[in-house]
Amino acid sequence: MSRGKNILYSSGNFAASLALSAFSTYVIFFYVDVLKMPAELIGLGMAISGVWNAINNPLFGQISDRSHWKTGRRIPYIRFGSLPLALTFILVWTPPLKWLGQSTNLMFVYFMSIVFLFDTLYTMVILNWTSLFPEMYKSQEQRTKVSAICQSFGIVGNITGIAIPPLLYGAIGWPAMGISFAVLTLVSLITSLFGSKEDSTYRSGEGLSMWAAIKATFQNRAFLTYVLGAMFLQFTFVMLQAGFPFYAKYVLHVSGLKVSVMLGTIFIVALFFVNMWAKVANKKGSKYTIILCSVLYGLALIPFWFVTGFAGAVITAALIGFGLAGLMILLNVLLSDTVDEDELRTGARREGMYFGINGFMVRLSISFQSIIMGSILTMSGYNANLPVEAQPLSAIMGIKALITIIPLISLIGAIAFFKMYPLHGPRLQDVKKQVELLHQNMNDAPAKSL
């Protein structure tokens, strides 16, 4: 495909990152701090939503794999789901306060309904958009090149969704912010459709049943080593993101714009190095590169234990962005290779199920992060009612551990599983050749029947 088409398809990652990062970062703050809902009730709602998310990822992946629309298996869900997704995103930030009144129960029902609807539509649209990637781009060079473009859009989306809201909701209000982000999300998704293309070869056949599909997925050793490594890696991402506001407030004694600058530095630096890591992966291989980036990412976390000032934290954030850039582009590349090998085993293209199970494992890592973070804060003696200077030293040590020691332990697990990942070197080349031959035979079959 042309570079223009690659850019158009990749622009969808701006929508995926913007909508999710803004929702994940600010929805609890909005309903608890702004609308004064009980924190424990909103926390319960998010936990229940997390269970549904763990279910709907593989469910919608299976539905997508077995779809037989005339215009494709994936694109119709993106085309017809994008507008409802954007409208639901607006509803997240515009609860009808006049109708709901002061009723906590009615507000909770509204919150749960909108969150469930948003999660469902987000999974339906974005899972199908990501599932197009392995089908559209089949070679190592294509996948790393386009993944770099995708992650560049994703980084801009993350910066917009995380760093910009404090500037917007104070100036124009939460509803206007929600509308603005919804419009950007919709435009991004529609734009991506102009670069999206499906292979009609994969529209035929019933595929595997739900149970058979799940069983075959977890019997794929390459996928198991990938997804477990990715789960440990994703755990470090969410732990760093969730722990950083505590670190900024209680260790560095900074807040507001300076926190946005530190988080923004990570993504801005990553933006400059995605293309470099794509070239390294093409030369050295994805397995070697993701292990190298994991090591560099881990080493960059260590200074956070010793840093005491804003400048040192910004420098450390920049070091993190260097290694993070490679990790961001390579996760989907490795996952796509496991999809190729699965096709040789099952005779079916099952990107939806693989990306769905991957999404399930990501949600699992978020649940683990929440439990571990809450436990460490409690055991360390952290007390939210105490002023910054009154927090015990044990709490400060616990907060430091959240963004250094805990992620480093998880990274060791990630590297261990990535080292066991079997699709590299001659074996990967053999899989690529067999898949190419299989597709040639599939394309030749209809011509011969005529």
Overview of the molecule:
By secondary structure, the chain is an all-alpha fold. It folds into two domains: 1-195, MFS general substrate transporter like domains (Growth Hormone, Chain: A, Up-down Bundle), CATH 1.20.1250; 209-443, Growth Hormone, Chain: A. The chain has helices at 3-10, 12-34, 39-65, 75-92, 97-100, 104-136, 140-163, 165-169, 174-193, 210-218, 221-252, 257-284, 286-301, 310-346, 351-379, 393-402, 405-419, 425-449. It starts with a helix and ends with a helix.
- Class derived from helix and strand content: mainly alpha
Helix segment tally: 18
CATH A-level architecture of the largest domain: Up-down Bundle
* Distance from first to last alpha carbon: 28 Å
**Overall mean pLDDT:** 88
Binned, the helix content reads over 70%
User: Could you state the order of secondary-structure elements as H and E?
Assistant: HHHHHHHHHHHHHHHHHH
CATH class of the largest domain: Mainly Alpha
| Largest β-sheet summary | none
* Number of domain modules: 2
CATH topology of the largest domain: Growth Hormone, Chain: A
List low-pLDDT spans: none
Q: Give the overall silhouette.
A: globular
- The CATH superfamily of the largest domain is MFS general substrate transporter like domains
